[in-house]
Every structure is written in C-alpha cells, then in structure tokens.
Amino acid sequence: MPADTRFDWIAETMHVRPDDRILEIGPGSSDSIAYLAARLDRGRIVGVDRSATAIARAAKRHAALIDCGKVHLLHAGLDKLDRGRVLAEIEPATGGFDKVVAVNVNMFWTKRPTAELALIRQVLAPDGTLYLFYGYGQPGGHTSASPKPAPGHLIDYLATAGFDGATVSSGDILGIVAKPRRNP
Q1: ∠ Cα 96 166 131 (to 5°)
Q2: Whether 177 contacts 166, CB under 8 Å
Q3: Which one, of 91, 104, 108, 138, lies nearest residue 27 by Cα?
Q4: Cβ contact 108:116 at 8 Å
Q5: Phi-psi group of 69: left, alpha or beta (phi > 0 → left; psi -120 to 50 → alpha; rest → beta)
Q6: What is the pLDDT of residues 122-153, one digit of tens each?
Q7: Helix, strand, or coil (residue 156)
Q8: Rounded Cα distance, 114 and 159, in Å
Q9: Within 13 Å and on the Cβ side, how many CA atoms surround 181?
Q10: Are 100 and 25 in contact (CB under 8 A)?
Q11: How far apart are CA 3 and CA 140, in angstroms?
C-alpha cells in the first residue's frame, strides 16, 4: 500500500488505541480502513457504506483484515442503518463505538444530518468521539486551493444534536472532533 500521509494524520488525530472499536461511515474502497486497522491489536473496525459496489471493492481490497477479524463491512446507508445490527458487530455489551469517523462524506458537510447524528449518538460509547474530515490533499505544509465546506453550519448542527465540536486542520485536511454532551 503506497503511503498516504492524509490517513496517517487522520489516525494520529483520532489517537487510535489498540483496543478501539471504530465505526467508519462511507469508507468506500479507500485505504482509510487499512490505516486505522494497522494501529489495532484487539480492536475492530466496522465500515458502513451505502454503495454495494464500494463494499464489494473494499471486501476484496481488505480481505486479509476481514479474515483476521479486524474489519467487518456492512452495506447500508446511514439513514437506514439499524442500531442493533451495527452494535452486534462489536459486542453490544461493550457500550458502543469508541470512535466514529467519516472522511469526505458529503452529507455531513452539505445538509443538516439530524437523523444521522441521532444514530451516531446511539452507537457511540458514552466517552466516544466523532471525527468528521474533509480534504483530498495532504496534511502539513501549505493549504491547497481545493474547495472545502465551511465548518460553521456543521458545528451548529452538532451542537443542536448534543455534541460539542471543535475544528482541526493540517494542510489540505479539515476536520471536526465532536464529543457528545452528557445531557444533550
């Protein structure tokens, strides 16, 4: 796998621990899953994508990670995802996912994702964190001229959904890190 410093920076920003339970929304067939899985020991990643083609490509690309149990893929749109179905992939008794991540998933940046954020709150562990990233270039150094959505509306939507969010960025990558409030 050729190095992609973007996914390294994302995994570092997420502070991925060896036993984390991670839900990746819309992984497509990119290497983001592999970069996160490389930091896991006993942890697990569940990738959920609405595209059957993307899931099939990801299953082929990440077959070894699936075979060893670090990765599981589900074909479903986030708006149609059943809480019980996704939690069953990580032993529901654990309390939910430690981290939920989405990289370049436009619905978060271009619309008001009310139902999606409500579902994320339901599957996120009480001390879990939501990470939303956008950008196609590399972290560090100069920012590119590639268009990026303004994070302001998303920060507001997160607040309405009971999250406290803050922006992070590096070079061409923009991110929002959000924690659920105890009493939304």
Answers
A1: 35
A2: yes
A3: 104
A4: yes
A5: left
A6: 999 999 999 999 987 777 765 555 556 677 78
A7: helix
A8: 11
A9: 10
A10: yes
A11: 15
- Residue 169, strand partner residues: 174
Would you say how long the chain is, in residues? 184
Encode pLDDT of 65-85 as tens digits. 999 999 999 998 888 788 887
Give the separation between CA 29 and CA 80, rounded to whole angstroms: 20
CA distance 7 to 38: 11
Q: What is the pTM of this model?
A: 0.91
Burial of 28 (0-12, 13-18, 19+ CB in 10 A): buried
Instruction: Find out whether 33 and 24 touch, Cβ atoms under 8 Å.
Output: yes
Q: Which amino acid is at 108?
A: F
Which pair of structure tokens corresponds to residue 39?
A: 């930091």
Among 22, 4, 6, which Cα is nearest to 104's? 6
